[in-house]
Amino acid sequence: MQLKMMTPMATLLPLLFLLFSISSAAxxxxxxxxxxxxxxxxxxxxxxxxxxxxTPHNQSYESVLESxxxxxxxxxxxxPKPVVIVTPxxxxxxxxxxxxxxxxxxxxxxxxxGHDYEGLSYVSHESPYAVIDLQNFxxxxxxxxxxxxxxxxxxxxxxxxYRIAEKSKTLAFPAGVCPxxxxxxxxxxxxxxxxxxxxxxxxxxxxxxxxxxxxGRILDRKAMGEDLFWAIRGGxxxxxxxxxxWKINLVPVPKxxxxxxxxxxxxxxATQLIDRWQNIADKVDDDLLIRLYISGTNSSQDxxxxxxxxxxxxxxxxxEKLLPLMQESFPELGLAREDCTEMSWIESILYFAGYSGExxxxxxxxxxxxxxxxxxxxxxxxxISEKGLNVIxxxxxxxxxxxxxxxFSPYGGRISEVSESDTPFPHRxxxxxxxxxxxxxxxxxxxxxxxxxxxxxxxxxxxxPYVSKSPRAAYLNYRDxxxxxxxxxxxxxxxQASIWxxxxxSNNFRRLAQVKTKVDPSNFFxxxxxxxxxx
Length: 535
Ligand code: FDA
What we know:
Low-confidence stretches: 1-26
CATH topology of the largest domain: Vanillyl-alcohol Oxidase, Chain A, domain 3
Strand content: 15-25%
Radius of gyration: 23 Å
Oligomer: single chain
Distance between the termini: 16 Å
Shape: globular
Number of domains: 4
Bound molecules: dihydroflavine-adenine dinucleotide
CATH class of the largest domain: Alpha Beta
Number of strands: 18
């Protein structure tokens, strides 16, 4: 639309900008040697620089690179790899890395937990490039009296939850379910978890942050200003600087919460239950969050997978209160006392992460088992019709997938009380739920790879009539490069980026681009889906 309205001169400008940008960003053939040399000159701990820097010549390069890779899709020989990985111990070393990247033209990627769905924190198609891996920045400072904590970005969610529970049994934080996710990427993209209907997303509970900007300055909320502080809470951190730490408000939870998982097959009225769930999930008591998983089990006799609906729930209270609440709002599920277990909030973290019997210390692990994975997301503003559900059932039986799953996460409650423009995350009032599609496989080789990827793209295409439209919304934390990528090199056109930007950010996309233009006009912090600079 915008392009059509341009004059011939205006259409030439982006091209000129492209040529200029590529030449100014190009790195020399020795950029990585120059980069390391520069680091040793500018790092305050120059003696120990060799312990922080890994190149493919180092024995530990592979293990450091793979330590935070969470998707086998990005371990293939064809996957681009960084020429340098820096694992700073001090903030000054991150400042030095930014300075040296600018000096030598070697682009950088920033990695906290490494869970990016497209591996953008360690895979770049702008080659060569370096990775700043922040896994050493993992301290958590909990202030029980003021109900706050400062959390460094390399901390995993499991570690954060563990440290909170160490200090208090009745304080918690509303963020994601997987304990190995890093708070650097997760918080900057939104952060949804099992108590989000009651307490909102992670970004709704962030009260301060520390960030290194493109000029190497360390800025807190006051120094960075409200526009930049707004942008990094939902707009993704990678476009704006290197976030060092977050100050968060902790939220109250009862000593005991109640969890349950109830599975129902097609023969047990799964479709009717799913239909009912869609009508109540965003409206029930805020203390209650019921997630719905649709998957296939190999149990039916005709070789077809039987559809299974799993209702996985967290209630911020005891069984005695939950049972009448469920009887009132979702009696069709037939929840029984035996289905429910009371436990502490921190034990519920283990439960939802799929652990049973392990000690809480497992939450301190940074790693978990690995598989190939492709994910995509959608949003619902109204229930999916039975015809739409049949598309999911049909697809679960198609393509001979190892594991496929469609997860519905209910919104409403506190999430929808925050206005669409308060943070860049726009999926607020009127959003029924998020849908997460997942294909997971372990089989090696191109055939399995292509089969699973093709299946996922077909499912996404076939779901179009049944999900949100104009835009067909998506969740940044479930990043999907199929939605579109920026141009190569340093050049990014707003029009081109809008294709995916509007889906993630809706009306907030323009403001994000304005903030980007102000704080990083040379587009130093960039990736395939970073916020563009306005021409
Ligand atoms: P990673 O380090 O890969 O970073 C992601 C992005 O943020 C990259 O672009 C990176 O450059 C940038 N970035 C990272 N640290 C930065 C920093 N310090 N400063 C600036 N930019 C930085 N989501 C959810 O809402 N609820 C959930 O329950 C889950 N569960 C879940 C399970 C599993 C197994 C996976 C793989 C993912 C999820 N997610 C999720 C999605 C998750 O929130 C998302 O992938 C986050 O971006 C991951 O953050 P990491 O720091 O781990 O990623």
